[in-house]
Each structure stands twice: as structure tokens, then as C-alpha cells.
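Dear support,

I submitted the protein below through the web form. The confirmation email said the job was done, but the results page showed an empty box. After a refresh the structure appeared. I'm attaching both so you can tell me whether what I see now is the final result or a partial one.
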Amino acid sequence: MPNRCSEADIHTSIRSYAEVLILFYDHTEAEPENNVPQVIMILLELISLVPEIHEDAVLAVATYIDEYHMTPFDAFHAGLVATSGERVLSTEQDYDTVGLARVSLAPLEEDDCVVAPLG
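What the results page shows now:
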């Protein structure tokens, strides 16, 4: 009897990959408990991501965790920004370290503030 899984179109979303990486992240040591790139490659071979562009984002996530020691949350933001060509809105300077375009949330100087009139 054939394996039902091999006949089905099995896929998941990027959220499931985020859950797995958070599960594998040791919060007390602030580092992953497993070889993240290897785990991601195995998962991508077993279960595809929809939409397909998210596969590139997840591969970028694995790189950011492995090479730059980012947390899973920061790595996911970075991976999505890197593969979409967008900018990230954040105070987190790790995004600068990996070369992403970042819009700072730092407080503006009083002279920089523009207040639109109401009404």
C-alpha cells in the first residue's frame, strides 16, 4: 500500500517553521539547541512552504541564527525583510549588523516632529 503522505500535497506556512525554531531555541543559553541550517533543510525536504517565496525567507532565517546568533524572532523579521526587499522598522541594531535597511524607532528631536493640524 503506498504511503498516503507521498501522494498528498503536504505543505505548511512559515508560522510552523517559526514554532519549530522557537522550540529548538534555548532561552537560558540564548542559542539554538540544534544545528539550525540542517534542521531547516531537512524540514524543507519533507514539508514545503506556501507561498514558495517563504522557503527563501526560512533559509535566510537559518543563516541569521547560525552566523549572526540572532534570536528566532529577530531572525524571522530579518529573513522576511531580506527576501522581500523591504525595510524593517525597529530599534534593534542587529538588523544593521546583517546589512538590512532599517527605519529607526529612536525618538525624534523636537525640531524633527511635524504635527498635522486636526480637522
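Response: this is the final, complete result; the empty box was a page-load delay. The two ends are 70 Å apart (CA to CA).
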